[in-house]
Design a protein that fits this description.
Elements: H1 20-34, H2 51-64, E1 81-84, E2 90-93, E3 99-101, H3 104-115, E4 138-139, E5 142-143, H4 145-149, E6 155-159, H5 165-173, E7 178-181, H6 189-200, H7 204-222, E8 232-239, E9 244-248, H8 254-260, E10 264-265, H9 266-269, E11 276-278, H10 281-287, E12 291-295, H11 296-301, H12 304-308, H13 318-322, E13 325-328, H14 330-333, H15 340-352
Helix pairs in contact: 1-2, 2-15, 3-6, 6-7, 7-15
């Protein structure tokens, strides 16, 4: 990642509100409404599926930690193709039989396009089930050129944050095409990146189909936003063991998701024009969040909700007073990939929930 008030009410964490019975009913209703299609999109002409039911289905799908490929046979790449790389190069791809995505969100796109059986390795951020047994070619977030080349990839997909640059250079010097993409930090980047990945792999029509599916899923999720509800939501990035405590602002990535879910990013609303700013009591009080949004590992690293409210300033916010905290798994929340519509489904429900 570029990386005094009322006593608290007794409240269960919003991120764990749905029990098995509710989930079973939700799945049945949502499946009926969407005609059994992937992604939980409501059919044209039907009333929007309630946010709670959509969120229950989305939570189950995220718990399964799998991707949903496009329907039909896998696409057949039409090669060679020459595409623009975000580091200023033009790259020609002649063979996609051994694909190596060096970013978890990009890997999700490749698998969802139907090309997962061609993927030969993974980055540490590719945490979904289909990729978990693939060889790991990164240490922390740094790419090892030797590990990459040992897998004999015919094309490598990276983003501008992938490094070190020396490793990328070694891979290119070995004759492997490396297509670099811009990082995805906004909701609209999901479809842009999907288009670019599909073009680089010679399957542009599959990219168009996936984008059509995702746009409909996101639109259906946003249709469930309750009228008149505009909670202020603060995204906190924390790693307690490393003493990292940051408040998200403009460009954090979470700001785009919060807006899509019909809420207001509290950091942006308080004037933060950088993606992340060190947390201060004054900054938190100025942000005044009704809800706090975090990654699950970040929340765990500070001792859960009870540990979180011990951090100076948290307990003085409306969210801290009410223990209104929503957390989502690290590898999904800011992945900006094909599972992002599920994230919007969950946020629409949990950010607006009582």
């Amino acid at each position: 990642m570029r990386v005094p008030g009322r006593p608290p009410r007794a409240r269960r964490p919003l991120s764990r509100r749905h029990g098995p019975a509710v989930l079973g009913v939700a799945i049945a209703l949502l499946t009926s409404a969407c005609g059994g299609g992937a992604g939980g999109s409501a059919s044209a002409g039907t009333a929007p599926v309630p946010a709670g039911e959509r969120a229950a289905v989305a939570a189950q799908r995220l718990a399964e930690n799998t991707v949903v490929p496009l329907e039909g046979d896998p696409p057949a790449p039409e090669l060679p193709v020459t595409v623009d790389s975000s580091d200023g190069r033009k790259v020609t791809v002649e063979d996609t039989s051994r694909i190596l995505p060096l970013n978890g969100g990009i890997a999700e796109i490749v698998f969802t396009l139907g090309l997962g059986d061609r993927v030969v390795g993974r980055d540490v951020t590719a945490t979904f089930e289909e990729a978990k047994d693939l060889p790991l070619v990164t240490r922390a977030h740094d790419v090892g050129a030797e590990s990459v080349l040992s897998l004999h990839p015919t094309v490598v997909l990276a983003d501008t944050d992938t490094g070190p640059s020396e490793a990328i250079g070694q891979i290119r010097d070995a004759g492997v095409p490396v297509v670099v993409l811009d990082p995805a930090t906004r909701l609209q980047d999901v479809t842009t990146r999907t288009t670019r990945v599909a073009e680089a792999l010679g399957v542009p029509s599959a990219g168009e189909a996936l984008n059509t599916r995702m746009r409909k899923e996101i639109a259906d999720a946003r249709a469930s936003v309750p009228e008149g509800s505009r909670p202020r939501v603060a995204f906190l990035y924390m790693r307690g063991s490393a003493a990292v405590y940051l408040l998200g602002g403009k460009g954090s990535g979470a700001d785009s998701l919060i807006e899509a879910a019909g809420a207001v990013d509290a950091g942006v609303g308080s004037g933060l024009d950088k993606p992340f700013t060190p947390i201060t009591s004054e900054g938190l009080v100025a942000a005044g969040p009704d809800v706090i949004l975090m990654m699950t590992k970040g929340l765990d690293s500070v001792g859960g909700i009870e540990g979180l409210v011990e951090i100076p300033g948290i307990a003085q916010t409306p969210a801290g007073m009410d223990r209104r905290v929503v957390d989502l798994e690290d590898g999904v929340l800011l992945s900006f990939g094909p599972r992002t519509p599920l994230v919007i489904d969950i946020l629409v429900d949990r950010l607006h929930g009582a």
